[in-house]
Amino acid sequence: MTHNKKIVLVVGAGDATGGAIAKRFAREGYIACVTRRSADKLQPLVDSIQSAGGEAHGFACDARKEEDVIALVEQIETELGPIEAFVFNIGANVPCSILEETARKYFKIWEMACFSGFLNAREVAKRMVTRNRGTLLFTGATAGLRGAAGFAAFAGAKHGIRALAQSMARELGPMGIHVAHVVVDGAIDTDFIRENFPQKYALKDQDGILNPDHIADNYWYLHSQPRDAWTFELDLRPWNEPW
What angle do CA 54, 207, 145 make, to 5 degrees? Predict the structure, then answer.
C-alpha cells in the first residue's frame, strides 16, 4: 500500500452527479477512485480533480461482473488505501411500454441498476466491517418509491436497490457501517437535459433543476454524520418539483 489516505469509491462516475460527488470528496482530502465501463471517459474527471489539487484514479470495470468487482476492490484496498465511502450511482433509466418491453432489456436494466449495486456494495462492506466503520451510499429515484407508466423495468430495479439498502442498513448499522439511500427527484443540470428537454433546462436560472454540486454536498453531509443521528433516506428535489 502506497499510503493511508482515505478512499471514496464512486461506481458510475458520469459527467454529472457521480463526477460531482467524486470532486466533493476529493476536496476533503479523499482519494477519488471512479469507475465506468470505459476508462477513457473518466479521464476528463480525473484530470479535473488533479488540476484542483486532489488525487483521483479511474478504473474500467463492468459493475455487473463479479470477478471484475472483486479484483477492483482488492486492487484499491491493496495499492491505495481503505475505502471509507462507497457510492453506487448507476441509473439505467430507459422508458418502455410494458406491452413492448423485452425480457432481455428488462433483465439488463435490473442487472445494471440493482444487481451491480449488490455486487459492489457487498465487496466493499466485507472490508468495512473488519474496521467497524464506513459509509455506503446508494443513488435512488422516485421510481424506487412508485412505478410510473412506461417505467416498469426502471421502477423494478430502483425498488430493488432501495430494498437492498434497507436490508444492509439494518444488518450493518450495528457493525459501524452507515448505509443511506438518496432519492433524487427532478431533472439534473446535464448536457442530456439541456439538449433534449430545453424547456425544462430553462428552469435552471430559477433553481428549478438539480445542481450536481448541491447533490454532492448532501452525499458528503451523509458521510459526515455522527453515528448517534444517522439518516437512512434523503429526498432531494427542486423547490418547484411536484411530489
Answer: 85
What distance in Å separates the CA atoms of residue 138 and residue 123, rounded to the nearest whole number?
A: 15
| Angle in degrees, 0-180, between the axes of helices 43-51 and 17-27, rounded to the nearest 10 | 30
Tens of pLDDT, residue by residue, the chain (243 residues): 445 789 999 999 988 999 999 999 999 999 999 999 888 889 999 999 999 999 999 999 999 999 999 999 999 999 999 999 999 999 888 889 999 999 999 999 999 999 999 999 999 999 999 999 999 999 998 888 899 999 999 999 999 999 999 999 999 999 999 999 999 988 888 888 888 888 888 999 999 999 999 999 999 999 999 999 999 999 999 998 887
C-alpha pair distances (Å), 140 with each of 22, 78, 102, 158: 17, 30, 23, 6
For residue 31, count CB atoms less than 10 angstroms from its CB and return exposed for 0-12, middle for 13-18, buried for 19 or more. Answer: buried
User: What contacts 174, CB < 8 A, 6 or more positions away?
Assistant: none
| Rounded Cα distance, 217 and 214, in Å | 5
| Domain 7-227 = CATH 3.30.420.40 | no
Cell of 84: 471509507
Which run of H or of E encompasses 32? strand 31-36
Cα–Cα distance list, 39 to 43, 65, 76, 164 (Å): 7, 16, 15, 28
Location of C-alpha cell 455522527: 226
- Residue the block writes with cell 433524487: 184
Smallest CA-to-CA distance from 110 within 156, 167, 69 is with 156
User: Is 151 strand, coil or helix?
Assistant: strand
